[in-house]
Amino acid sequence: MKIFCRTDQQCICYLCSIDEHKGHDTVSAAAEMAERQKELGTSRQMIQQRIQNREKDVKVLQKELEAINRSADKAVTDSEKIFTDAKLQIRSRQKSEVSHVNRLQEKLQQEIADLNGKDAELERLSRAADHTQFLHSYASLSRLGEATDSPSVKIRSQRYTEDVTAAVSEVRDKLQDILSEEWSTISLAGTEEVLVPQAEPETRTDFLKYSCQITLDQNTAHKYMSLEYGQKAKHIYVQNFYYGHPDSFTDWCQILCRESLTGRCYWEVECNGSAIFVAVAYKKMSRVGRESAFGNNDKSWALQCFHDGYEFSHNNMRTSISGPHSPTVGVYLDHSAGILSFYSVSETMTLLHRVQTTFTQPLCPGLGIHSRGASAKICGASDTEEETA
Hints:
With 389 residues, the protein is an alpha+beta fold. It has six helices and 17 strands.
């Protein structure tokens, strides 16, 4: 068995090489072994190189972990120091105010005691029976009954503590915005997925594992958009109650959701009518002008759904898309991987369009309804938890 048949990938004897394996590609087993050993050497080199690369990645991540811990510890320490200073100032102010009130109380108590003494003297004088004694004493005591001007005590409003509380609440709100939005741009979330890429889901059941709860933000709704029962957004020609809010769209019948999404998320939109935009956008996108339409700027990505097809738009660039029409559109977002996919949802999931980019901010789902009477509904974690525009 010193001959190797490459055609059948097996070792054979000389007789087989001139019989069953006649005409096949054959070489000596030793030659085949030498060639395969070269391939093994190349494979080992590649594996060892990958090991070295991964070991470097581990060291980089370890340094990043240490930096994160140092930074977080410093932030906590600095924050505690700041709030400790603030608490000390409040307590110092409290001590000063309490001392001031105590002095006023002592002064008033002393004044009350003095007035009680004067009142007793006047009472004794008023009961004197001897005319001469009364008139003699009256000359020196009559001034006791004169009214003296004492400043009235007013309860001062404790505005300084209220102002401190309001300021702390404002700082807390700003801090929460920073933690939820700004930090996501520098976060290492998704590093594991970069090192070990995860396959995109295939079945609707798989997609629903990443479903998320989504709530429409009525403050962003255009004046011709109605939210019925807080669940359904519809295009009408009636000005709604929230028209005029600074976050509302002024030129396009659009609405954003409250949530800022990162990580892996999935949601579905049920469309009723035509010219409906299923979109994602950065929360700080423009609300005014032509560029505020979903897909007309570099801060939004939109799939427009018609009765006979679809169109994708981003940064004012449009792409016509053919695919099976379905009233339900599925949206899959893998923020860290920079993947945004739109699906036609029926018995199967049909990919309509996929975007591969780098997202620099969290994304908000959005709806645009440019046809009168049309409506759309965002379905989140379950069929019972949904929002409709």
